[in-house]
Amino acid sequence: MAGGADWSLIDLIRHWPGKDDRFTLFVNKTHEGLPLLREKLPRSVEIREFTTFLELAAETLEKHPFLAFPPLRKLVLLWKLAQNYWQLKSALDGLEYGAVLLNNGGYPGALTSYTVSQIAWKRSVRKSVMIVRNYPPHPYTKSLIMRVVRHICNRTLDHIVTVSKSLRRAMVEDSGVDERLLLTIYNGIALDNKNDDSRPDGPPVAIVPGCSVGIIGTLQPRKGHRLLFQAWQSVIARFPQAKLYVVGSSKSGNKNGLKRYAEEQGISDAVVWVDFTSNMGAVYERLDVVVTPSLEYESFGRAVIEAMAFSKPVVATKVGGMPELIEDGIDGYLVEKNDPHALAERICRLLGSESTRKEMGKAGHAKYLRTFTADAMARNYYELFNGGS
Questions:
Q1: Which residues partner with 130 through β-bridges?
Q2: Domain 4-50+97-190+374-386 bears CATH identifier 3.30.565.10
Q3: Where do the DSSP E strands lie in the chain?
Q4: CA quadruple 58, 59, 62, 68: dihedral positive or negative?
Q5: 294-351 pLDDT, tens digit each
Q6: Torsion sign across C-alpha atoms 281, 285, 286, 287
Q7: CATH architecture of structural domain 196-371
Q8: What's the pLDDT tens digit per position in 50-71?
Q9: Its pTM surpasses 0.85
Q10: What is the DSSP letter of 189?
C-alpha cells in the first residue's frame, strides 16, 4: 500500500522550486507505492527499479533450500549484500548527480539507503540527506546492525531530517547518531494531488450532513481504531444519526478483526468502511470531523494536516508529533490516549456546534497555509540542499 512517505515525496518533487533540477528515483521493484509514484510524479522524473539484497537472497534460498542452514544463510546474505552494492554502484555511476535524498520510513528503515549513502560518499557527492519519518525501535539500539547503521550515518550523511521535533528528540535519545546531523522539516500537503477529476463524485461519504466523522489511515492497531470504536458508543447515544467513516486499505491491517470488534461494541450500523481512493479530496470535503486517535508511533500525523487543508476540525491524541500540529481548543482538540470518554466528549462537542466546527476549521486552514503547504516543505528542502554544510 502506498503510504505517507510516497505522498510526501510526490508533493516534494512536484513543488520543487529549482525548475532546472532533475530527479532520478530509485524504487524497490516490489514497493506497493510504485504505481502511485508512476501515476503522480511528473514525466520528467526517471524512475528506476531495483531489487534489495534481501529479495536477492530470498530468490537464491528458494532455488537452493540447503543454503538456508544458518551458517550458509549468513554467507548468502553477505554475498547478496555485495552483489546489491555493485549493482547499485553500477547504476549510479552511469548518472551525473550532485545530491542524494534518501526517503526512508522509520529508522533505520531500508538498508539499501545505507548502501547508497556509502556509494555517494565515496563519490564525494555535494550533499547527502536522509529523511526519517518514524521512531527508532528501542530494543535494537545496541544491536550490531544498529551500530553499523549509526556509523554509516555519522560518516556519510550531511543531514538527517526528522518530520517532527518529537521524532528528533527520539533520534537523539535512541539512535546514537550525531545530534549535529539532525534537523526538523515538517511535511507539507498539496491539495492538487487529493482530487481526481475523473471521479468527481468520490466515495459515499457524508450521507448525513453535520454528523459525518472520519478516521483516515492504515488499519494497524497503533492507529487507535478500537479506541475510537469504544468512544463511538457514547457518540451515537447522543447523536443516533452519526456515521463513522473508516477510510483505509484492506491490505493495511486486520479489517475483518476490526469489523468483528465494531460488532462487539454494537456500532456496526453506524460504521461505514471506505477504501483508499485517488479522490481523497472528496472524502475530506464531505466529512464534518476528522479523528486521529493514534496510540503510538505517530511521528507527524499527516491526516491532521490534510484535514486542516480542507478546513475540517480534528480530534487527536497527545501522541508523537501531533501536539506540535494542533493548538488545543483553537484548531482542534487534543486528548490523552486510551481515554475513550474524553475522545467521545470532544467529538460530541464538535457535532453539537456547527459554529465551532467552522471556527476550528478556519483556524486550521490558516495554519496549513502558513506552515504546512507542499510549497513550504519543498522550499525548506531546496534551501537545505543549496545552503551551507
A1: 102, 160
A2: no
A3: 24-28, 46-50, 99-103, 127-132, 159-162, 182-184, 212-216, 243-247, 271-274, 289-292, 314-317, 332-335
A4: negative
A5: 999 899 999 999 999 999 999 999 999 999 999 999 999 999 999 999 999 999 999 9
A6: positive
A7: 3-Layer(aba) Sandwich (3.40)
A8: 999 999 999 999 999 999 998 8
A9: yes
A10: B
